[in-house]
Write a structure and sequence with these properties.
The chain is built from two helices and no strands. The chain has 85 residues and is mainly alpha-helical.
């Protein structure tokens, strides 16, 4: 494998990582913002209140998106190993 091919493979790997992690992190961001707004409105400033719902939402999103994530990883692996679908 020459340098341009290795760089392309690395770029594709990083892009796939962002594509896979993006929806999960986005859900964590949205849940965190909603809870922060609720905390600001109710003046309840407990730091641990944000952690549990955010983690639960991110784990639920991971479970729901697992087939999609698996398919993306399988497609990438097939591309890297040169296996036809």
């Amino acid at each position: 494998m020459d340098l341009p091919s290795a760089l392309d493979a690395g770029r594709d790997m990083l892009l796939l990582s962002l594509i896979i992690a993006g929806p999960i992190l986005g859900i964590g961001l949205i849940v965190g913002l909603i809870i922060s707004v609720v905390q600001a409105v109710t003046q309840l400033q407990e730091q641990t209140l944000v952690f549990v719902p955010k983690m639960a939402a991110m784990m639920l999103a991971t479970i729901i998106l697992l087939p999609w994530i698996g398919q993306r990883l399988i497609d990438y692996s097939r591309e890297m190993f040169g296996i036809a679908p």
